[in-house]
Fold:
Amino acid sequence: MRGAKVRPAFLVGIDLGTTNTVVAYAAAGDAQAEINLFPIEQLVAPGEVAARPLLPSLRYHPAAGELAAGDLQLPWPQQDPASVDHAVLGALARQLGAQVPGRLVSSAKSWLSHANVDRQAPILPWGADADVAKVSPVAASASYLAYVGAAWNHRFPDSPLEEQELVLTIPASFDEGARALTLEAARMAGLPTLRLVEEPQAAFYDFLQRRRATLRDDLADTRRILVCDVGGGTTDFSLIDVAFDGNGEPQLTRSSVGNHLILGGDNMDLALAHLVETRMAAGSEGGMKLSAARLSQLMERCRAAKELLLSHDAPDSATVTLLGAGSRLIGGSRSADVTREEVAAMVVDGFFPKVELTETAKKGRAGIVEFGLPYAQDAAITRHLASFLQQHQGALPDTLLLNGGVFRADALARRLAETLAHWRGQPLTILHNDNPDVAVARGAVAYALARRGQAPRIGGGSPRSYFLVLGEAGKDKRAVCILPRGSASGEEIRLTERLFALRLGRPVRFHLATSLFEAGTPPQLGEIVDLDAGEYLRLPPLASVLQAESGDKRDITVQLVTVMTEVGTLEVHCVAAADAGQRWLLEFQLRGEEDVASETSSVSPRVKEAIEKIERIFGGKAQKVETKEVRQLRQHLERGLGGRESWDTPLLRQLFDALLQRARGRRRSAEHERVWLNLAGYCLRPGYGDALDPWRIEQLWALFDAGVQHHKDNQVCAEWWTLWRRVAGGLSTEQQLRLLDDFAFNLQADAVQRGSRPVTLVNGSDDDMLRLGASLERIPGAYKVEVGAWLIKRLQKADKKGEVADTNTLWALARVGARQPFHGSAHEVVDSATVAEWLHVLLALDWKKTEPAAFAATHLARMTGDRSRDIADELRATILARLKAVGAPPLWQAMISEVTQLDEANTKRMLGEALPPGLKLIG
Structure:
């Protein structure tokens, strides 16, 4: 009977790696069962299937007709969670991706932890052409798990994978957002029930299982173990302390984990690809800079060369060949030789340099961003390790376990061991890892055995402390500990010292922070910490709407309850103080990515008076208010609160909430509507920055379809479009596309169409539409190209008439074609070829007479470091020379030649107005 709970036949461990996916298993009913690898059948050539222990975590999206149906035949029917036709996964994907640029999805796992993009949006392959199907990082990860499930179910039809006891591995440094998205990928793949275990722990569990017969002797002289796991995309450090009980049996406690580092084998391949690209360019006329897709293709070639030259008995050199594209597949190919010594020097000295223990890793903005990923700025893994060991109290590790494919290279393993020995002043014990490629998957099974009491278990509980950020009296740098480091899984912890009064039916949000280490003794439950006194990481905010069964709106007193779940994720509940049976789960906000650092500050004591003024104008009880008083509401608010440019985000949102509650009052007169629209947009700008802004946008959007009451008043119509422009940053892609429909109607409708315009479709002038269209950063790049073409026509029309180019048009072009969007995802920027055409139009203008043309060109040519977005070097040099010739500001010139951040003045000019104080864009 399918309805009954099925006893699992197998314990299954899945290592969903950046580079490879590996599966191991053991019989569930046998305590002595051996852990086996599950060979995964996959396409290794067109039409050829073979079982391999590793499934490359890669997807290839072929062009229509590129592969025949018979070339893709698998022994089972394959359903792609990403809904891409004929997608190729595994070994053949790697082979095809090395031959054809721009169609290979790689490093999906690294993207899962990249909070500055929408990880559930179809953005991969990064920088691919418009005709290439794209998938989200979550869907790509789900497709590998679904493929594993199909392969497993084909081999074990009576024991489907979804009915087994599953353990999925993740980097120890994955934050709560990345963990939640990993679980979402598993659900998409049809695997809703599983546990998570950290990869360094899994690698050590594998060692414990393999050496269980001699474990006491192996660890007799060990007191602290460092597990260093360097995979294809991430680097993880974990410390495990060893003590012995009265019987001499080792007791193991995981004491520390490191920060998240997007640093691994991919970075080494990229560094080698830069070297080879330079050599190939030296032999070609006019040089050669590869596109992002071609560079990705070259990285695959360099990965193979790196593994060959760092292997045992490696040859003296290897040739890296990059095939030509299209009809020049062979004749257009380029080759370059790299030697074993060069690769060793670049990888060993570049990524594992000899450093002192006192050195610290460089901090700041991300380093290499060739493919949109925020790689660690400091590539020296040994320096990151020194920083990690400085942060954690106690003796230096005396024992080392290495894991990850890069340590198949003996030179890297030796260098890391030598560095640690130098820091200690004596050699370390090296624990043998017989196969770093598969140890994590095997260790996941060993972890499942340990949970059943059939193998040694590592203690330690939660690797992090969690804190509730306090905001009262403006002391937002303080936080109270709600889950101490070391808390056991499954144990609910209630913060009894603090009560919260919340209103049912209204949204609530809490800001959390976490710390991987604390100086001295870790904070205990309820202890107050200073967030400025250590390295604390702000988590995505927790938010929910507390709904009561009866639908009432009364206030209720609650406490916070936290638990590190058995699955391996943090859960936080609001629990009614009077009735523990009433509880509400708070969820991390992951879709509206945290583009900004939102500062909580003290609210003016005169806010109540300000809300009373809003009530007088827009409140439910009609009051006799003169038109002049309505018109001067803003000035009256400023008298009590100070100039509106000083209103910070918490104050602005309180005012918006007051306006939203009285939205009906805007309909009383055209003056009421103008003032309400203006103030509401100003107080919610830029549409994000506070944890409850998604809820506010949802409430505001409910007003859109009704349009304005006084639709014949031009100023009301203008304020309507100003409102949506101001909050555009918080609107979804679908909502921005809805605005784009009205944008198009207002610009393109003829007299007949305008005569039949519905009254709910608000009229907008060309200038209104210009500002609105430029603010829609989430619409697809193809639509931005159309908006930009309209703007270019305006410029060319003015030029033919001998008129000076319109400042607003140039500003809008800068927004539409910007290489670095403010709130949109980088995958939706206008393609660089189109931007190059626009830049040639701008170059035809006189920048001395028309300074905004230089401003627009600066943003269109701004360097991001991402080849898929950046313009060609030759055109960049032309723009830079012109900026220098007209004496453009130094920051504008720097934006062309290096990756920089905008200052406050340029941010204000680009957005059209200033951000609220304390709100800083960090994208």
